């Protein structure tokens, strides 16, 4: 009998310990996974600014049949200045010879070094190499065409250490070198690594990996926790429950043993009164110790941070720890005896009883023993996400179910933040090129259904580089934020303003009746950026803008084509005098449609 009681209690203790231990491991894995996703989103967001910028350089080359050295070098210098990590940009001719380079003394990979890719007519990434000036890096190759013929490549060399140090190590969003280690590999070669090493087995157990596409290759991003992470996030809940439970089991076994021995002695008449008194006194001491141990176990139950609720086979709540009462906003008397559906939205509460009945009848585990994320409901009706794990146990032969719950609102908010970071520029909080493309797709679809028009406007700031060079990046970044604020506040709520790289922006305007509607918006954009901008300490600068406009369906029907036309129109206004806007021209035409901060005569 003592062993049977001990076995039953041990199983219950082990179940509670397993649930708490699994919940704690799941909590830690979610923290590591969230950090890995956050790092991947930051790197992805940066690449989604760099790659389109280089693509635009290549498309302008194609559209204009080449470029002047001065114009190309100005573009290259602008991108190198705005996007730390670009070591150099070069034009390599189709014959493999270096033509232009910024800076002039830059060491540029030869096409011969990437023979497997040579001859490709789409952008590609070269292998990881040791750069001449130290550190590891890689090159991005963007093929050029002029007058319909191949004209070499733009080669942009990225110095991995400078790039990732700028993107990651200076970010307030992540905790590298403190809580996490990081390794980034490109094509099987290590590109970047930081943080302390970790035991191989432990690293494999906790490491989170994400793959991020980069043209023809993939970046493999690995994140693992440091010793400091475990010190900061360690929880003693499971161990406390185990220690308390072991104490209860041992005392219960001892008490049953004493009861049996006393009963056996009484039946045989082998115990004297004095001995019996001693036995009874010992039993009282054991009972007192057991009560103390039960109090300790109860204290552990009540101190656990996770919410724990037990129910019977009919779904009635039998117990709830303080964490559960606090999380749902009820008192013990308001919960005990009520159906557990009280803690769920009405739309899903009835499903819980169905799942329990189905499990009891068929053994189908829809929710038992399976961790999942559900929606809870507080006493005031507010809904919130929670992680739920349900286990079964038997008490005095009756089946019971124990639910361990954790509010994951903070994690969901972190996930939303990660999604936001992947689609929004960290400097201005404007949408990135990827989100702008999605919005343009939506605007085209809505215009098609309604028989109306949509416009995409390609904006490039005039005179931003001198401001950046004269006042520094801090002022330059502030100018970009002011520009973003003026555009966001000054245009219609339905319009999308996106920063796509450096000092370049896209504006998506839908629901237009004709070209005059687009011209009104273009004029407003030019007017919004005409007043001076503050540089701090009472200083002011003017930047202005050059704006290219393409209309759906008049100028094209696809996102890429319309953006390309708007880009070319922007360059016409840039070359014609700046500070104005120009509409895209039909194929075969040049000039025309250019307006300088004045009245426009757009074609409809």
TrEMBL record:
Keywords: ATP-binding, Kinase, Membrane, Nucleotide-binding, Transferase, Transmembrane, Transmembrane helix. Residues 293-363 form the PAS domain. PROSITE patterns: GGDEF, PAC, PAS. Residues 370-420 form the PAC domain. The chain crosses the membrane at residues 240-259. Putative oxygen sensor; modulates the activity of FixJ, a transcriptional activator of nitrogen fixation fixK gene. FixL probably acts as a kinase that phosphorylates FixJ. This is Sensor protein FixL. It comes from Acidihalobacter prosperus. The lineage of its organism: Bacteria, Pseudomonadati, Pseudomonadota, Gammaproteobacteria, Chromatiales.
